[in-house]
User: Which sequence fits this backbone?
């Protein structure tokens, strides 16, 4: 094995370790002690944070194994990572405690000058749609860690009024700049989705045994199949198709239908008002709504809005 290949393999080998002995490298790569020492010097020059400890076989401690050497990435992969970094700037809240300016500074410290120049140009020539939302979600990192560690939380959540529940988070998603969390309510044994900005507090609790994440993910697939889901279809014109392309949800699909477009999907009966409010945003682009009870729900919401504006005009006059 060539030295460059061996150094790259060492980085991967040591990535999950807090420490190692010189003898480990000598045996794994069939190299002499002097070669192993030179390889360790190369690792330090690359930027792997090592410090030696006294011992017969040369014990070493890694200060932070999460640091990844830039040599492990191709130029195309660096561009892809930087593009992902640019997208993070569009979010008011993220699950990561990071400052994009700090990451950009680190890029400038470790990347070749030409690549730094190209990344700087990328930030100028690529403009991404801003999805900044005025609602800040401060518990995203705790939710992600809670999912991975299968943590049970006492959740205090503000809807129309304050609600408390004991739950385990399963998934985190973002739509139009707003963060949503899917969780399993251990008290009611039901799956539900909540807005992350409405979470008032999360406190780790031992009041319930945690459920393995694989089992919870399986519940996501099967739980809603047991619930009463209501199918719907909406015929829209070209403007309606354009609006759908900007704002839609995973339970919805669109396809060409005669000279127009047909949006189909399903919703839980408790989501009727939410669906009606969403459909109102299509305005006059909607040509037909099925089933009839959904059409009535949309009409009712439209009437309530019209009545509100009439009352407002009356007060102003």
Assistant:
């Amino acid at each position: 094995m060539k030295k460059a290949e061996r150094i790259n393999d060492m980085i991967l080998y040591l990535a999950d370790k807090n420490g190692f002995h010189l003898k480990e490298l000598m045996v794994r790569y069939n190299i002499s002690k002097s070669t192993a020492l030179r390889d360790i010097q190369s690792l330090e020059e690359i930027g792997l944070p090592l410090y030696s400890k006294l011992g017969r076989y040369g014990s070493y401690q890694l200060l932070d194994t999460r640091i990844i050497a830039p040599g492990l990435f191709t130029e195309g992969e660096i561009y892809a990572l930087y593009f992902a970094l640019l997208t993070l700037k569009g979010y008011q809240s993220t699950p990561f405690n990071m400052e994009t300016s700090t990451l950009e500074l680190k890029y400038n410290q470790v990347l070749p000058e030409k690549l730094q120049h190209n990344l700087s140009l990328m930030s100028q020539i690529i403009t991404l749609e801003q999805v900044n939302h005025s609602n800040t979600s401060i518990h995203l990192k705790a939710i992600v860690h809670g999912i991975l560690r299968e943590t049970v939380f006492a959740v205090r959540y503000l809807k129309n009024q304050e609600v408390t529940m004991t739950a385990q988070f399963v998934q985190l998603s973002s739509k139009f700049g707003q963060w949503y969390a899917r969780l399993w309510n251990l008290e009611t044994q039901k799956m539900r989705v909540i807005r992350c900005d409405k979470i008032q507090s999360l406190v780790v609790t031992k009041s319930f045994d945690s459920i393995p994440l694989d089992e919870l993910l399986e519940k996501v697939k099967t739980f809603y199949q047991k619930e009463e889901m209501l199918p719907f279809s909406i015929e829209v014109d070209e403007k309606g198709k354009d609006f759908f392309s900007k704002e839609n949800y995973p339970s919805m699909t669109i396809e060409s239908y005669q000279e127009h477009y047909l949006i189909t999907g399903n919703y839980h009966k408790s989501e009727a008002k939410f669906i009606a409010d969403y459909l109102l945003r299509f305005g006059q682009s909607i040509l037909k709504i099925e089933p009839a009870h959904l059409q009535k729900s949309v009409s009712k919401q439209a009437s309530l809005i019209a009545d509100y504006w009439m009352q407002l005009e009356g007060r102003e006059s």
